[in-house]
Structures are given as C-alpha cells and as structure tokens.
Amino acid sequence: xxxxxxxxxxxxxxxxxxxxxxxxxxxxxxxxxxxxxxxxxxxxxxxxxxxxxxxxxxxxxxxxxxxxxxxxxxxxxxxxxxxxxxxxxxxxxxxxxxxxxxxxxxxxxxxxxxxxxxxxxxxxxxxxxxxxxxxxxxxxxxxxxxxxxxxxxxxxxxxxxxxxxxxxxxxxxxxxxxxxxxxxxxxxxxxxxxxxxxxxxxxxxxxxxxxxxxxxxxxxxxxxxxxxxxxxxxxxxxxxxxxxxxxxxxxxxxxxxxxxxxxxxxxxxxxxxxxxxxxxxxxxxxxxxxxxxxxxxxxxxxxxxxxxxxxxxxxxxxxxxxxxxxxxxxxxxxxxxxxxxxxxxxxxxxxxxxxxxxxxxxxxxxxxxxxxxxxxxxxxxxxxxxxxxxxxxxxxxxxxxxxxxxxxxxxxxxxxxxxxxxxxxxxxxxxxxxxxxxxxxxxxxxxxxxxxxxxxxxxxxxxxxxxxxxxxxxxxxxxxxxxxxxxxxxxxxxxxxxxxxxxxxxxxxxxxxxxxxxxxxxxxxxxxxxxxxxxxxxxxxxxxxxxxxxxxxxxxxxxxxxxxxxxxxxxxxxxxxxxxxxxxxxxxxxxxxxxxxxxxxxxxxxxxxxxxxxxxxxxxxxxxxxxxxxxxxxxxxxxxxxxxxxxxxxxxxxxxxxxxxxxxxxxxxxxxxxxxxxxxxxxxxxxxxxxxxxxxxxxxxxxxxxx
Length: 707
Ligand code: NOJ
Ligand code: CA
Fold this sequence. Notes:
The chain is an alpha+beta fold.
C-alpha cells in the first residue's frame, strides 16, 4: 500500500486583501453552485448565509461564543481584514472508498476585532466546495486574550429556509445507538421519539439532534450537517428550534466543570460542515469531511492491511457462549465461581476453528473477544476501574499458540480491548497493551467503551472523551496498531490525518438484532444509515448473518433483512475491516452465498453510487484495488422495488463474468428471508439489468474480467 502522497497543488493564490468596509464578503464554489455571504450587522454581530443554485438554503445565521469569567464573543465586532484564496489538490487514501481524492475549494478568511474593550480578535475561515461548505473559528495569539479559555457555549446557527424532511437521532451525550427518526424539521422532538431514553444512563438535552443529520427539501436539495476534525473540543449536537426552523450548536458538557470546552490560546475549533447536493447519491460520494482534515501525519501505514474478519463474537451476542470465564471477582485468587466457564467462547480450540475457516475462505483476520481477565465485573458494576487487564489471558486461551497457528495459516488475530469506559485503567495500560500486540505482530485492535464513563460525570461525547479516543489512536500508531472503536466518538474525517483510525461503531449495529427488546433494526435502518452516519466515515456494522432467524438460539429476535441484503452490505456499508459475523457452522451450511463473502473486496480504487433515495434504497458499485474486480450492492427498506442498472462504469471492449446474488421469487425479510437466487452471466459496459429487491431485501454482484 502506498503511503499518502500529495499529488499536486495547483494554486494557492491570494485574490484580495482589503481592510474593512461594510459590504458583504462573498465566495463561491469552484463550480459556482454554492455561495457563502459573510457580514456583520449594526450591532457588530457576525453572520453568514449560504446559497445553493441561487436559492438561499441558510439564511442570516449568527456566530459567536459564551465564556466563563469573560464577556461573550457575539457582537461589537468590526471586520479588520478579509482574504480570499483558492486551493486544488489530489491526495491519495492509503486505504479507502477510493484511491484519489479531489480537494478543490475557495476560502474566505475574515479577521474580526471587538471595537470596544477588551478589543479581542477572532478569525472565521470559510471554505466552499462543490459539495458543500465548512467553516471554523480561529482564536489567534493576542495580548488581551491569553492563557486558558473556558467556553460555556458555542453560538453557531444554521437558519434554514424550508421545513425539510429530516433523518435524525437524538442529541444524546453518551450514545449514538439510536434508531433514526424521519420527520419534518418542524416536528423534531428528541425526547418523544427517542427509541430508548433511560435518563439515568445517559443525557438527551431537550430537542437536540446528533450529527450527521440529513435533510431533503421539496425541490430535491439535500443537506447534511456535521463537523470535521473534532480535536480537543466537545462534540457538537444541534438544538432544533422547530418554530423558526433554526439549528443551533449545543456542545456536549460535563458534570464536573462549569464550562464545556477548555483550550489554551491560540487554537482553532473543529469545522462546522454542511454537505449540499441536489441528489442523494452525491451525498455519499462527497469527500468534504475528509478534505477538511489535515494531511496524513503518520506516513507509511502499510503495516495495516484492510481485511475481512471472522470472530468469537456473534456467539456471545446470541448466548451460545460467554465472554467471562466464570470466576469470582477476585482475579488474583483465580477462584472459579463454578458457573459459566464450560461455556467460555475465547478458548484456544474455538479460535483455531475460526482461523481454519478464515484461511479457507479468503478472510484475513479473526477477532477474539473475552480472551482477557475482567469480564466477570464489567456491565452493571459501578466500580469498574482496575478490573480489565489487557495483557492477561484466561487460562483456557493460549495466546502464543493461537498467534503461532494464525501465522501458519496466514490469518491475523484482531485484539480486543473492552475498557467498560473505565478510562483511567485503560490509559494506564495502553503502552503495555499495545506493546504486547506489537510483540505478536497484531496490527488491529477493536476497543469498546460500554457503560457510563469513569470518571463519573463525563460523557462519551464531551471534550474529556474526545481526547481519550484521539490520544489512544495516536499512541496506538506508535506501536503500529490500528483502532476500530465501539461506543466511540463520531467520525469526523480524522482518518485522513491518522490513517490508523480505521473504523468504528457509533450506530445501532448488527448486535441489536441479536438482543434488542424492540426487535432489532427495522428494514429502513440501513437505507437511512447510508445517507447519515456513513457520511462521517467507515462503519464496523458486522454484516453477513446467514442464519437470519437464529433458529436454535433465540426466539424473539432475528435479523430484519433477507440473506441477499446481508451480502449487499459488504459493498454498501464501507469499512476497511469488514466482519463475516455469523458462526462457522452457519457459513459451512451455506457454501453458495458464502462464495460472495469469499470473493468480495475490502479496499477500493473507485466508488460509484448508482442510485438511491434517503431512507428508501441505495445501490453502490466499487472497484477493488489491485485486482480491478467490481462489486455492486443494493439494499431496500420494507418496500419491494425494481432497480434498473447499467454497467457503463465497466471498461469498454471487455467482457466480464458476473455472479448475481438476488432475492428469490417470494423472498421477504420476515416470511422468507433465506430465499436467494444465484446466477452466473456474462456482462459488458453496454449490459442492462433489472433486479427485483424483496421487502427488506437486496442484491450483490461480483464482476470479474474474463481472461
Ligand atoms: C459492545 C460492542 O459494540 C460489541 O461489538 C462488543 O461485543 C461488546 N460491546 C463487548 O465488548
Ligand atoms: Ca455497541
């Protein structure tokens, strides 16, 4: 894998540099479709507007801050200076949805100063792209604002002009694992519609939503609000004023402080972003979020190889085996509590079974959860510090032997660090834990942050935790370890800067289908996720469940899709680590659909979103790096539909062999989820295909050039 390379920089041209007049400053995207206007009003309040195709999509929206122990920073400003410039480059992703990324934008930098004491300075930088905008606040070095700054709130507004159809989850300070709601913006009601809201376990401020939040207008304008480069700051939720159709930043706080963000001067905030397109597929193809992040700081990360993986995982979620070994809470005495350890999943023999299966099926890794001591005392316990140990295996797990066996078979072991949100314990052990991985040549860790954060009073999405997640990844990189965090902070494109941040959860994943008391993720879940959560970055969703109804394990739950849709997810949901999540025995009983998982790529040269409607359906085609093979995946919600495809993305004058995996004649996510038709055919760039997707269904196609 090639390290990040800056291919070329066309221009960084200063267009104008003038001191303040009262007129509006305007910049327009390279294709001239998106425009930002900036100005200050009579009170000296800074504001901006955004136009798309000459229509105002964000009307006068004010900008500013509240501080602890300092006057607020909202008005009384004059414009000291403005600078515009333009930038164009192509950079390469070391792994990703595509190899080459175009990064073209125009920039407006506004330098503001308070016109009365304390005459502080604030800069606001706007970037306008063809696919949207980003802006951030810069606090430059200055004599009258020094040392630590305590932000109690950021007052960033997005004042909308239409009652958009809005796809949202509550602005929960701890948990992104919510079902999406679809309502008009004027009907957003975070607490009323939250699927779970145990307020002893989490905090959902009144009428705030989390980002990315995606909106579709009547005329077809698509907007998605999010942030980029969330570093040493709190996550931003958006408070919805349903009457005035206004969104306002609402930073995640802490019970332990009377401010939300503490920074030392000088500093910059994260970018506030709006992806703006006139159709749904372009939202997925947008690279705005990664483009707003700094280039690769790690250099060559070719030690991380994108891979498919299996694991000792689903069996615990189904209740077939346990994470814990069944010892009493006193780890030092190793006393067997005598209940569960006959059932311990992470034992040497079981892991070898997964290694054998992976080796046979072109799957590069095996995740082992429940291998280390501490699982007797995690969920449901308050005193979780000092419990998990990230270097000590249970007695029935021979880590030396498992790693040796994996190497012999060409399969990597994926490390697991469940922290149970006991951050001090994890922080203390990180160096030894990552060093152990390095010793074994393990390059990927799945981490987890289940439960309320310790220290008490902190939230998963506040500044304290943003720093925990980022620092863990930066430290891991020193040991050539790549991180896939569960219960994470949201993705904000930092994978560009630190390409060892490979994937994460941060949504209701497949696990909800195993045990959620509300019956799991409904068929519309992923057709919404593709246009919301997925815009922020890779998702460790863990697809590929073949035993949809969990026959022998659970009666009340099931996966709410067809088996063909489970295959489609390998293409639709992007991640450089992609799990084949089901049990070995369920795959071995179904060799024909398994062929797709065996064949499908995980690292892409090109991605094309062929069609889609937010919340209804989506079809994505991706070309594998190295082989030139193409894979296509399509999924639908609870409605059956016909999708028409052409293959004009293929090379002209070449013939390809396609294997089509589609819903069987009477397939249905609930009544008949296993009905699948598999068909081999020849196609070329002029071929057409109509595919019928069942209710909750999908299709997957593998396309290889004929020799
Ligand atoms: C929650 C994670 O999402 C899941 O994948 C994992 O198995 C458990 N925590 C245990 O760490
Ligand atoms: Ca989870």
